[in-house]
């Protein structure tokens, strides 16, 4: 007599059929049945050092593949440690399935270690605001309906994380049948405002394209360039949209907002039409836009309508659905003969003068880094002053190769994301630019990369302080409480203790040598940059008055 498949069997088989090749997490009793079944079905298990990092790894995997990422944790604290990564995935529209364990339903109400029930840490409730869907599966015969719903939400529409909390006895429950529906990608477009949009562009005298994170997430890089060239409109990028277009394209006028350039922000303040592609227009993007300079008209493409038309006072034309699908359709239907002729300024030298410092300048390192690395790369950039220095100074040659989250802005996210991306795309050279503050939070995850031979190159900017917080507090309050590391870290010794190669750099020449050696080495490497502590980061626009 054939044994019936269990819920864990059906889930593992479904994930394999979805094309999932890796899962990320930390194993424990409450999640053991599902994790082991995933291994049995050929899904490689990458054991992390902290659940947050495992969640970020699943996000990096999802970003690089465009497919579902999978992260898991045990009940109780294993699940709560995943919450930060879930919120980060939601902010970045990344389809990640977060799976947490739970005590057996039959034992509900009995005090147990690492309780995930409503008696202590109700994970299904906790994940609800941090995901697009969160549900406790209380019975095996409910599994297929809930699982199908969850993956459909994760992989369609605006895309994003979902969470399933599955009790131990439900994971091992045998089922006579279980129908899993694999969702297919749909083309999601909004064509109703096509004529209004073309009309608005033709009536504008100073239009501006603001390329946001959505360009990178949807892979609309070719369509962005085609839009700009068809209508001859200048392009600027938000912090998260950095890399949407190559740095030397004639119509690119630089980054705006925090980490932006003066020229780009000047364009922002004298344009009468914004064409916003996949940006929420957060404070990190429009901090230098004066209220009296809001444009007359705003065309906003966004798969998520939450903030569309609600940030600026402009008359708004909204376009929902997938950005790449929309741009592709619109560009196919544009009558080029009816386009207004304009002659915008091109080949602008938007870069500003580098700082002159007695010690190593991070700005100078970032300005030359893209000349030192292979073209086929992706760089994941952590949050902090180092991140905004990269936004301002790094020259992106390969569109879509720069990944930075200035919105949820979780310190340490890039460390895990780079590992997950490298697992998904082993042929690429993957870099992570992080800071000493971020690295001291989640830097042990380099041991995960070492153990699984996932050769990411980590660049750790070490200025022995929480630089962005220090400079901001000093400017606004005159105080720097809690921002200095009295005993600074030695990133090279730390890296070597975890099995990685280490390089310490105090000059640009040492950095160039370290990059060359690390790329050739093809193993996990940590390059420590000892930068000038007095370098002013490009973050001073966004300040807080505590008077």
UniProtKB/TrEMBL annotation:
Similarity comment: family membership: Belongs to the TPP enzyme family.
Record flagged with keyword Transcription: no
Cofactor: thiamine diphosphate
Cited Pfam families: TPP_enzyme_C, TPP_enzyme_M, TPP_enzyme_N
Name used for this protein in its record: Thiamine pyrophosphate-binding protein
Residue ranges of every copy of the Thiamine pyrophosphate enzyme N-terminal TPP-binding domain listed in the record: 6-110
Ranges for domain Thiamine pyrophosphate enzyme TPP-binding: 384-528
Keywords: Thiamine pyrophosphate
Domain Thiamine pyrophosphate enzyme central: 195-327
CDD domains, per the entry: TPP_enzymes, TPP_PYR_POX_like
Signal peptide range: none
């Amino acid at each position: 007599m054939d044994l019936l498949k269990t819920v864990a069997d059906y889930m593992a088989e479904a994930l394999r059929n979805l094309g999932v090749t890796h899962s990320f997490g930390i194993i424990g009793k409450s999640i053991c049945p599902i994790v082991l079944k995933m291994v049995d079905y050929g899904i490689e298990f990458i054991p992390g050092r902290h659940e947050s990092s495992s969640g970020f790894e699943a996000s990096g995997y999802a970003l690089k593949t465009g497919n579902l990422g999978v992260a898991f944790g045990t009940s109780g604290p294993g699940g709560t440690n995943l919450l930060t990564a879930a919120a980060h995935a939601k902010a970045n529209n990344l389809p990640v399935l977060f799976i947490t364990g739970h005590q057996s339903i039959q034992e509900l109400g009995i005090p147990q270690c690492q309780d995930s029930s409503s008696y202590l840490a109700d994970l299904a409730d906790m994940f609800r605001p941090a995901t697009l869907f969160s549900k406790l599966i209380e019975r095996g015969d409910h599994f297929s309906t809930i699982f199908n719903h969850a993956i459909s939400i994760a992989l369609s529409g605006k895309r994003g994380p979902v969470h399933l909390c599955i009790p131990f006895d439900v994971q091992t429950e045998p089922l006579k049948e279980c129908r899993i529906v694999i969702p297919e990608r749909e083309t999601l477009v909004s064509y109703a405002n096509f004529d209004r949009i073309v009309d608005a562009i033709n009536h504008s005298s100073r239009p501006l394209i603001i390329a946001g994170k959505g360009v990178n997430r949807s892979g609309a890089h070719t369509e962005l360039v085609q839009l700009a060239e068809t209508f001859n409109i200048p392009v600027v990028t938000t912090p998260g949209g950095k890399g949407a277009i190559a740095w030397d394209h004639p119509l690119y006028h630089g980054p705006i907002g925090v980490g932006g350039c003066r020229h780009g922000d000047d364009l922002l303040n004298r344009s009468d039409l914004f064409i916003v592609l996949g940006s929420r227009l957060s404070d990190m993007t429009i901090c230098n836009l004066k209220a009296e300079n809001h444009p007359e008209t705003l065309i906003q493409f966004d798969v998520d309508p939450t903030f569309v038309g609600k940030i600026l006072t402009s008359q708004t034309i909204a376009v929902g659905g997938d950005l790449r699908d929309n741009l592709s359709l619109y560009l196919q239907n544009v009558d080029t003969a009816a386009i207004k002729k304009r002659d915008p300024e091109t080949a602008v030298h938007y870069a500003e003068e580098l700082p002159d410092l007695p010690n190593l300048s991070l700005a100078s390192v970032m300005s030359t880094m893209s000349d030192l690395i292979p073209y086929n790369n992706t760089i994941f950039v952590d949050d902090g002053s180092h991140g905004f220095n990269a936004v301002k100074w790094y020259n992106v040659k390969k569109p879509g190769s720069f990944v930075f989250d200035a919105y949820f802005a979780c310190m340490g996210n890039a460390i895990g994301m780079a590992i997950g991306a490298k697992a998904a795309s082993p042929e690429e050279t993957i870099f992570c630019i992080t800071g000493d503050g971020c690295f001291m939070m989640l830097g042990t995850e380099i041991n995960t990369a070492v153990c699984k031979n996932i050769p990411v190159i980590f660049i750790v900017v070490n200025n022995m302080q929480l630089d962005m917080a220090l400079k901001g507090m000093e400017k606004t309050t005159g105080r720097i409480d809690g921002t200095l590391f009295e005993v600074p870290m030695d990133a090279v010794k730390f890296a070597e203790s975890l099995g990685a190669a280490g390089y310490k750099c105090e000059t640009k020449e040492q950095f160039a040598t370290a990059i060359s050696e690390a790329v050739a080495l093809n193993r996990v490497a940590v390059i420590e940059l000892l930068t000038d502590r007095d370098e002013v980061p490009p973050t001073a626009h966004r300040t807080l008055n505590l008077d």
